[in-house]
Amino acid sequence: MNPQAMQEAMTLMEKARKYDELIAFPERDYELRCSFCGKGQSELDKMVTAKNVCICNECIGVCVEIIAEDENEGVSTNE
Ligand SMILES: [Zn+2]
């Protein structure tokens, strides 16, 4: 890497760091809870949030299983 490219990379990193601070999430005064199982943010690894609902990684796993089962049944019963 030539010195000029290095300098540009450093500048970009510095900008990114500042941007990170700007977009840092404000602290919430409440804990997000999964809309499906009701577990709190602190009990879970990951949470996907939409406008008014949240779903945790555990419930997503259950959903994936249910959908996979339905697809398998559909294939076996319709034929
Ligand atoms: Zn859940």
Automatic annotation (TrEMBL):
<dbReference type="InterPro" id="IPR059188">
    <property type="entry name" value="Znf_CLPX-like"/>
</dbReference>
<feature type="binding site">
    <location>
        <position position="37"/>
    </location>
    <ligand>
        <name>Zn(2+)</name>
    </ligand>
</feature>
<keyword id="KW-0479">Metal-binding</keyword>
<feature type="binding site">
    <location>
        <position position="56"/>
    </location>
    <ligand>
        <name>Zn(2+)</name>
    </ligand>
</feature>
<keyword id="KW-0143">Chaperone</keyword>
<feature type="domain" description="ClpX-type ZB">
    <location>
        <begin position="22"/>
        <end position="75"/>
    </location>
</feature>
<dbReference type="InterPro" id="IPR038366">
    <property type="entry name" value="Znf_CppX_C4_sf"/>
</dbReference>
<keyword id="KW-0862">Zinc</keyword>
<comment type="similarity">
    <text>Belongs to the ClpX chaperone family.</text>
</comment>
<feature type="binding site">
    <location>
        <position position="34"/>
    </location>
    <ligand>
        <name>Zn(2+)</name>
    </ligand>
</feature>
<feature type="binding site">
    <location>
        <position position="59"/>
    </location>
    <ligand>
        <name>Zn(2+)</name>
    </ligand>
</feature>
<protein>
    <recommendedName>
        <fullName>ClpX-type ZB domain-containing protein</fullName>
    </recommendedName>
</protein>
<dbReference type="InterPro" id="IPR010603">
    <property type="entry name" value="Znf_CppX_C4"/>
</dbReference>
<dbReference type="Pfam" id="PF06689">
    <property type="entry name" value="zf-C4_ClpX"/>
</dbReference>
